[in-house]
Amino acid sequence: MKLLDCPVIGSRPISEFDYMGEVRVPPTDADESTWSDYVFNRNGAPGVLKEWWYHRPSGRWYVLLRDTLTDRITGHVDISEVQYELPS
């Protein structure tokens, strides 16, 4: 069984989590080309990414730093640090 070493709740089975993607801030006041690039393109280079993870048993969201080369969790980011304002 694969475990996810969450810095907040400890080691838990990966099956308890849903991966929800890289933390990315959408562009504001952008043209179609910029939006297209945001929606369809990703930087696939290995490295440490901020990623959204949802823990189903607790119903909590986490932003974890994961090294995509080694598949290891290297840290936790407070959700308030990745919040951004929506355009009105």
Automatic annotation (TrEMBL):
Where does the UniProt annotation place the signal sequence? Answer: none
Against InterPro entries, the record matches this protein to: SoxD, SoxD_sf
Report a single Gene Ontology molecular function.
sarcosine oxidase activity
Pfam families referenced in this protein's UniProt entry, alphabetically: SoxD (PF04267)
Which Gene3D superfamilies does its entry note?
Folate-binding superfamily
Q: Name a single GO biological process.
A: tetrahydrofolate metabolic process
Q: What is the protein named?
A: Sarcosine oxidase subunit delta
Q: Which organism is it from?
A: Nitrincola iocasae
